[in-house]
Design brief:
InterPro entries: DNA-dir_RpoC_beta_prime, NRPD1_N, RNA_pol_asu, RNA_pol_N, RNA_pol_Rpb1_3, RNA_pol_Rpb1_3_sf, RNA_pol_Rpb1_4, RNA_pol_Rpb1_clamp_domain
Domain RNA polymerase N-terminal: 218-497
Number of helices: 53
Enzyme class: transferase
Catalytic activity: RNA(n) + a ribonucleoside 5'-triphosphate = RNA(n+1) + diphosphate
Radius of gyration: 45 Å
Protein name: DNA-directed RNA polymerase
Length: 1442
């Protein structure tokens, strides 16, 4: 690495303002190439750079690959081919012209004529409408992959021919003959054109049309192909050089012998082998042993990332980290050999002379010489006295140097922290304080840290002021404290602050060394002891743990958090004082951050940690398996309580199952007595629960409610000395559920994914045998289960084989499947959309692209965070915050019983993606008016569901029969066949159906002509009625059924078939209740936000989720739903009800309502992940995605839409996001330019990003010097105001001269006359020194504009007066013109030259004088540029213009 630093490399410098894309032309390729390749073996010629067998570049003579970047070759083709990039454009052009006459196809509707270059007959058989039946239209398109690899143009007839007819023989006469044309790919209605044939067709097309479509006609043809340098095609380095597949593709093109289409296929194959176009390897390729890290196998995005986005530096290190509680929080322990290897550039000055001189002297003794940078070049130094002030010296790392630490992956802003170096005598690890593991999201199980050494003074200052640990005390995601006591120190604090902890004087003095410098306080307990040696009473003093802890706090420390009172640095409350040290909304750390500087907070935490760790080491603390044995004396009682608790939980779960529809008959008492026991059989309930995810979810929720009470038994049976319990109470480590599973019982276990088998009720051998016998009694046809069970044993007591198997099945880690990469994908997408958003200097939130406005002001919530500064990259902070919640959701696996927070968050963020299929839903909230009645919300929800939910006729019909009735058939024109639909009276009553409403619904559908026409169905006239029983059955008073009859009115021979095949299916699909637009309605429960402080009695509310039916029009679903709710309008709160699709919200309520809906759903999704995020982050995400007036999808299309709305061209950023090759080709074809305004653009191309410390701002400097304000006399000021109010009499004389009456007006400008002698010389000297001839000419233009800007006798504005006054000073008779002094300047007419305009100067004495600006300009030019003056005089003063 030292050689890298001390190598002088000549690097060209410049300021990059942007990049422009274009397709490489043949002329540019020939200019850039150094050699024409004519032999296949020359593709690795030494003239193309390294690597090559000659070990020297034959073009530039370089002998090292570092000084030679390679050179381009050129391959000439034997014939011209179409450019592969422009094949779609060529096909579009061919479709716009007539292949026969080569004219643009005429639009008969608009009757537009297009001029043709070629003289063609007036009637063309291809474009004239009269010949279309014989000469059908044709369509040109790019060939499929199997035909020359999508490199040929195919033309085919666009209309299917009538059977028995064929195309006329001269239909393909427009296609020129070409010997290279292959007939194997052609057919009677299709031709595959060669490139020469396409050229012959296009050469007669109007050149102006081709130029407008392509820019240049020649760029669609290709006669040569550039050959990339050797270094771009190397797959491996070693003794035997290996080139990649592109080298073999280049060899195929040299001296090619084949058709043009085959050559084009070779070209496109070579282009696809480019690293930037390579596709991502599939999973199968990776499993076959192919190395994904091989450069030749690298896909496009990875190539862009490693070549362009990734930056290499020699001033960095990477090592495994360990914890060291005795180094400060803002320090990092670096091994001594790493510190000696890492170099820091520092400029030598008088303040650091001794330190740098000693360091360089040691380095010279070790290596004989060192290098410094002096005046931009490297200079070797062999003696210490050769150093000079101003030299840049490269020295090793010292204590106190600042380094940037990164713990990958960098998914949040606090993964980058600047720490101070502390060189330690260790060899192989870095050391950090354990308290900073929280911001780094790391631990000490092998995590590595990356370190970067800043080399400039500016970077060191930025690290210290922006990302140092004392500047990152607050979590930018949640606004809470970032640092706190944890693990051992937090456990020690809990134990120290408990009652009964005392210290004698030696112990207290030993621990007082780690506290702030305070006097020891009075002891809490004083005992008198008898001393036998002196025979008097001595005192034994004891201090409490709280007193010792108070020594760290200051006397002005007053805080009250979580029930803990601290007054003047002493604990006042006695209820769990350690609660103020745990994580939460309010704690001791928040008070420290609010009232102390960052360095002081770090000192507090370090003092706390040193004290607690030292005391814990003195006291001793260990964890063993003995802590799992809660109580040996009362073990039996504990087991009994656990067993009874599990039985109660099981009863609660089964009771929850009885609330569903399947068991309503039991609840209402409608079951026969002999069936009641079977309905409540526990085994059957267990089986039913495992067949449905919804039932399992309800049962699991009820079971866990009771199981929480079982967990609390831990506190009753665990001893005070239990180490596990101490850590749980302290909040430092451990999980209550896992503790219960080890010591008491494993508890409820359920599978995260559906399985093909189910579990028995009890987990024992007897239960398993009974389970196998009972399987035959359960319903068949069920092949998917959601198994669950309760393991009553604990891990400590041991599990039987069945329990162990069930525990393994239900806790396997395969629940995420293909969703493990969702969080990383969301993070990448959000960063691309939001990383360029920053706070402008006017307080608005803008984007770097086009300076587009995103927010008028950045909403700052009440948190510990300071107000965001100008230039703050708030977009990146918001993206990191949301992504951190997504990563946190990985701890909650996807389950069949619970909604996945991760998938829910993904669904919310991708709401802008428009889906053409799938279910649409809407959420309806109940009106608050319903709370006036008891259970009003419950009854209201049921009424709304019954009103909307679609109920088909077939859902209530239990039997359909067709009877022959000869009596009915006797009537004229009436069919004797009658169809009976049997409906249970009980089912109709349960569904709240009336017979007449059913009949009305059937009749309405039969008369709906629009629906019949849409179904293309001819329905006969029907007679629909109701009967209590069929005609063949005797009447039974106890009959529980009713019958709906349908009969065809007009009799025919096919009436039976028509009734059976058409009428019955048609009527069964009738919607007899509810809305045809609604598939189903679910009644759900929504919890109120935890942060809500509204005075509600319950913790949530009921709402309804409405699902769209398959027949409903997707775009109008919400409008139809509102129309269907007209009758129940008062029962629904329409201000909160909304469609669940953002697109529907925009259509129905506008973009502002959609933004608020997105924000509320995003907050809910974030809350489900268990993370806390500041509201300004969520609001910024909503505003960023909706800044264009609609929610854009977070994909490549959405990014393109967002940039287009900003009027910003950013092909490089879009290429880094997705499909780099396609983005670059599209930009090159359109000639797009990229100003590199974004962050990723600037960093990739060596520019400073336009945010943060590099954000845009304007410096406005006034040349006027600051002057001390003169004291003002109040009385004179008042007298002036009085004088201004006095009336001024003005008299106008006949000679048009004004005189003032009471008081002379003040002069307009202060004027000092030049001395009589030498005044002209002085003016000439001043003008020549400060003013040029061009300045005088610009002044002339301004004066002319001012002269004709105003009306006659109109006064000039203040700015224009100043310009005219400057010109007057340049007049040859300025003193005479000015006279007593200027008072006003206006535009007027010359008194001697009629309507000629000039400037009028009104003097303070009331007189007026005119002056010409031409004379002023001529006099000034005469003084500084005589030649220009003569030209000006000949043009303006003598009336001659040239």
């Amino acid at each position: 690495m030292d050689n890298e630093v001390y190598v002088e490399q000549q690097v060209p410098s410049g300021v990059l303002t942007g990049i422009r894309f274009k397709v490489l032309s043949e002329e540019d390729a020939e200019k850039a190439s150094v050699k024409e390749i004519s032999v296949p073996n020359e593709v690795t010629d030494p003239a193309l750079g390294f690597p090559n067998p000659a070990s020297q570049c034959h073009t530039c003579g370089a002998k090292d690959y570092r000084t030679c970047e390679g050179h381009i070759g050129l391959i000439k083709f034997p014939f011209t081919i179409l450019h592969p990039y422009f094949l779609p454009e060529v096909a579009q052009i061919l479709n716009k012209i007539c292949p026969g006459c080569k004219n643009l196809k005429k639009d008969k509707a608009k009757k537009t004529d297009v001029e043709s270059i070629v003289q063609t007959p007036k009637i063309c058989k291809y474009c004239d409408r009269g010949f279309r039946d014989v000469y059908p239209p044709m369509k040109f398109k790019v060939s499929m992959k199997d035909v020359f690899g999508k490199t040929a143009i195919v033309v085919e007839s666009s209309r299917k021919l009538i059977s028995g007819k064929s195309l006329p023989p001269d239909y393909w006469d427009f296609v020129p003959n070409d010997p290279q044309q292959e007939d194997s790919f052609s057919a009677f209605n299709r031709r595959v054109l060669t490139h020469a044939q396409v050229y012959q067709i296009l050469k007669d097309v109007n050149p102006s049309f081709l130029k407008g479509s392509l820019g240049k006609k020649n760029k669609i043809f290709l006669q040569s192909f550039p050959l990339t340098p050797n270094c771009h095609r190397v797959a491996e380095f070693g003794q035997n050089l290996t080139f990649d597949e592109r080298t073999r593709a280049y060899r195929k093109m040299i001296g090619f012998r084949g058709t043009a289409n085959e050559l084009s296929a070779c070209v496109i194959e070579c282009i696809k082998l480019s690293k930037i176009r390579a596709e991502k390897p599939s999973f199968r390729m990776n499993t076959n042993g192919n190395n994904d890290d091989n450069p030749s196998k690298m896909h496009g995005l990875k190539y862009i990332k490693e070549v362009s986005l990734g930056k290499r530096t020699d001033f960095c290190f990477r090592m495994v980290c360990v914890g060291d509680p005795y180094i400060k929080l803002n320090e990092i322990g670096v091994p001594h050999h790493i510190a000696e290897t890492m170099l820091v550039s520092e400029q030598l000055n008088s303040l650091n002379w001794e330190k740098i001189n000693a360091s360089c002297g040691l380095r010279i003794l070790q290596r004989g010489e060192t290098f410094i940078r002096r005046r931009g070049g490297l200079v070797p130094v062999r003696y210490g006295d050769q150093l000079r002030i101003g030299d840049t010296v490269y020295r090793p790392l010292h204590d106190g140097d600042i380094v940037l630490i990164n713990r990958p992956p960098s998914i949040h802003s606090h993964s980058l922290i600047a720490l101070r170096v502390k060189v330690l005598p260790i060899d192989c690890v870095l050391s950090i304080n354990p308290l900073i593991c929280s911001p780094l999201r790391g631990d000490f199980d092998g995590d590595s840290l990356h370190g970067y050494i800043p080399q400039s003074l500016e970077s060191r200052v930025e690290l210290a002021e922006l990302v140092s640990l004392e500047k990152q005390m607050v979590d930018k995601q949640s606004g809470k404290n970032l640092l706190s006591l944890s693990h051992d120190s937090l456990t020690a604090a809990h134990l120290m602050l408990e009652d009964g902890v005392f210290f004698n004087r030696p112990q207290l003095q030993q621990l007082q060394m780690f506290c702030a410098n305070q006097k020891i306080k009075l002891p809490a307990i004083m005992k008198k002891l008898k001393n036998s040696q002196f025979d008097n009473m001595s005192r034994s003093c004891l201090w409490t743990g709280r007193q010792l802890f108070s020594l760290v706090l200051g006397k002005d420390f007053d805080v009250s958090v979580n029930g803990t009172e601290i007054k003047k640095g002493e604990f006042v409350s006695v209820l769990n004082p350690s609660s103020c040290l745990q994580e939460g909304d309010e704690n001791l750390y928040s008070y420290l951050i609010k009232n102390y500087e960052g360095k002081e907070v770090l000192e507090f935490l370090h003092s706390f940690q040193e004290l607690l760790i030292e005391w814990l080491s003195m006291r001793g603390f260990s964890v063993s398996l003995l802590d799992l044995y809660l109580s040996s004396d009362s073990q039996t009682n504990m087991n009994d309580e656990v067993l009874y608790g599990l039985l109660e939980a099981e009863r609660q779960a089964h009771g929850q199952l009885l609330m569903v529809d399947a068991h309503q008959d039991f609840l209402t008492g409608n079951l026969p007595e002999n069936e009641a026991y079977n309905e409540l059989d526990s085994s059957k309930l267990c089986h039913d629960q495992q067949t449905s995810a919804a039932l399992s979810r309800a049962s699991a929720s009820a079971f866990k409610e009771v199981f929480r009470d079982i967990q609390n038994l831990i506190y009753n049976y665990a001893t005070k000395e239990n180490s596990f319990l101490s850590m749980l109470k302290a909040g430092s480590k451990g999980n209550m559920l896992k503790f219960v599973q080890h010591s008491m019982c494993v508890g409820y276990q359920h599978s995260l994914v559906p399985l093909s088998f189910h579990f028995p009720r009890d987990f024992s051998c007897i239960s398993w045998n009974d389970h196998k016998r009972a399987v035959s009694s359960f319903p068949l046809g069920i092949d998917r289960y959601v198994p669950y069970g309760v393991i009553k044993s604990s891990f400590l007591s041991g599990l039987n084989p069945l329990e162990l198997f069930i525990h393994s099945v239900t806790n396997r880690d395969a629940s995420f499947g293909g969703h493990a990469d969702i969080s990383g994908t969301l993070f990448r997408k959000l960063m691309f959309f939001m990383r360029d958003i920053y706070i402008g200097y006017d307080g608005t939130v803008r984007s770097c692209y086009g300076n587009q406005l995103v927010q008028f002001s950045y909403g700052q919530s009440q948190s510990l965070l300071e107000e965001a500064e100008c230039g703050a990259p708030v977009g990146s902070l918001a993206a990191c915050a949301i992504s951190e919640a997504a990563y946190g959701a990985l701890d909650q696996p996807i389950s069949a019983l619970e909604n996945s927070p991760l998938l829910n968050l993904k669904k919310v963020l991708e709401c802008g993606v428009r889906k053409l299929s799938g279910n649409k839903t809407a959420s309806l909230f109940l009106s608050q008016k319903l709370k006036r009645w008891t259970n009003g919300f419950e009854y209201g929800a049921i009424d709304v569901k019954n009103h909307l939910e679609k109920l088909l006729f077939q859902d209530v019909v239990s039997l359909v029969t067709i009877f022959y009735s000869p009596q009915t058939g006797k009537r004229a024109h009436v069919s004797p066949w009658i169809c009976y639909f049997r409906i249970s009276k009980e089912a109709a009553c349960r569904k709240q159906l009336k017979v007449q409403s059913i009949i009305n619904a059937l009749k309405i559908k039969c008369t709906d002509s629009i629906k019949l026409k849409k179904l293309k169905l001819t329905l006969p006239k029907l007679q629909i009625a109701s009967k209590n029983y069929p005609e063949d059955d005797a009447m039974n008073e106890n009959d529980e059924n009713i019958f709906i009859t349908a009969q065809i009115i007009e009799d025919s021979s096919s009436s039976l078939d028509l009734l059976q095949d058409v009428v019955v299916p048609f009527l069964l699909e009738t919607v007899i209740k509810g809305s045809s637009n609604v598939k189903k309605v679910d009644i759900l429960w929504q919890d109120y936000p935890k942060t809500s402080k509204s005075g509600r009695d319950s913790s949530g509310e009921l709402y309804l989720r409405v699902f769209m039916s398959e027949n409903c029009e997707r775009r109008n679903f919400w409008r139809f739903l509102v129309d269907d709710c007209i009758q129940i309008m008062d029962m629904i709160d329409w201000e909160r009800s909304h469609p669940d699709s953002i697109e529907d919200v925009i259509l129905a309520q506008g973009i502002d309502a959609a933004r608020n809906h997105f924000l509320s759903t995003l907050k809910s999704a974030i809350a489900d992940t268990g993370k806390s995020i500041l509201p300004e982050h969520l609001a910024l995400a909503a505003d960023c995605l909706s800044a264009t007036g609609e929610f854009v999808p977070i994909n490549a299309k959405g990014l393109s839409i967002q940039r287009k709305q900003m009027s910003a061209s950013s092909p490089f950023t879009q290429a880094c996001f997705s499909n780099p090759s396609d983005c670059f080709v599209k930009a090159a074809k359109s000639g797009a330019s990229d100003k590199l305004e974004g962050t990723i653009d600037a960093l990739s191309w060596g520019k400073v990003p336009a945010l943060g410390t590099g954000s845009r701002f304007d410096i406005i400097f006034s040349g006027k010097e600051h002057e001390i304000d003169k004291p003002e006399d109040v009385y004179s000021l008042l007298s002036k105001s009085v004088e201004i109010d006095d009336e001024v009499a003005v008299e106008v004389n006949d000679d048009n001269k004004q005189q003032t009456g009471n008081k002379a007006p003040a002069p307009l400008f202060q004027y000092h006359k030049f001395a009589a002698e030498g005044g002209t010389d002085i003016m000439k000297m001043v003008l020549r020194k400060h003013i040029s001839a061009e300045d005088i000419k610009r002044l002339s233009k301004d004066l002319k504009h001012i002269l004709y800007k105003y009306d006659v006798n109109h006064k000039l504005s203040q700015d224009d007066k100043l310009v005219a006054w400057k010109a007057l000073l340049l007049h040859p008779r300025s003193d005479e013109k000015i006279g007593a002094g200027p008072y006003e300047i206006k535009v007027g007419n010359h008194s001697k030259h009629g309507n000629t305009r000039c400037f009028i100067l009104e003097r303070v004495d009331g007189t007026a004088e005119d002056f010409s600006y031409h004379k002023c300009i001529h006099h000034a030019l005469k003084l500084i540029a005589p030649d220009e003056a003569r030209l000006y005089e000949s043009r303006w003063l003598n009336g001659k213009k040239y």
